[in-house]
């Protein structure tokens, strides 16, 4: 849209800007002192819808959101009905991926992996354990192509899920490596754990982890893991997620365990191989 075409669009006022920031503070459960900034803004094609790129230091990366012309509606995605349906799906997946990656999370990384799996999970959920067993069982050549991201969504209906999530979030504060050790420990012993046994399991692990384990214990006692869980819950609310596991693979949503995880991953790897040469030219 040219500058001349934007003359009829209402300006983004300080009041509208602060409404956006207030919504994000409430959504991500941040204090009133948390500073947001609009890093970039532009109109979407020949409309008065604004694409806003918003930054905040506690977020993993910038948020891309869309504001309606009257400043009333804020959306994580905006689909163009003049585009082909195939393009809608790709645009929606790309926008979802950006939103999911905006909040810091523990990552099990394969460098240059073409497949990203983002999982909203609960350590007490048997289907979540089953999903992680499926990931562990991937053939090495597929596992090397997968980047695995964990999001906390412990259910209030589970007896020890919240405490386990806090311990895992405190392990994440120390390092992603320590988080994944705790992650694997909880799923491996899920059948044996209850509310009475969990504190000892965590304490024994903390002792075995040495100095980093002492950091886990201090974090748990100070409530240091709560913020990460709250941020993921807010993200889940934004994306209308209420069940675990909810899995996103390269931005595509799966409610529950994908039936053919190996096939989905292989298809994405094959697709990345086909598109890479044209992208490099």
Question: How would you summarize this macromolecular structure in one to three sentences?
Answer:
With 281 residues, the chain is of the alpha+beta class. The protein has helices at residues 14-27, 85-100, 126-136, 140-143, 161-174, 176-188, 198-208, 211-222, 226-238, 261-280, and strands spanning 37-43, 50-55, 63-67, 74-75, 107-108, 115-121, 146-152, 246-249, 252-255. It has a 5-stranded mixed sheet with strand order 5-7-6-8-9, with helices on both faces. It has a 4-stranded antiparallel sheet with strand order 1-2-3-4.
pLDDT under 50 segments (min length 5)? 277-281
Largest sheet, in brief, is: 5 strands, mixed
Number of helices: 10
Number of domains: 2
Give the end-to-end Cα distance, rounded to a whole number of Å: 29 Å
How large, in whole angstroms, is the Cα Rg?
21 Å
State the total count of DSSP E strands. Answer: 9
Strands of the biggest beta sheet: in what spatial order?
A: 5-7-6-8-9
Structural class: alpha+beta
Mean pLDDT: 87
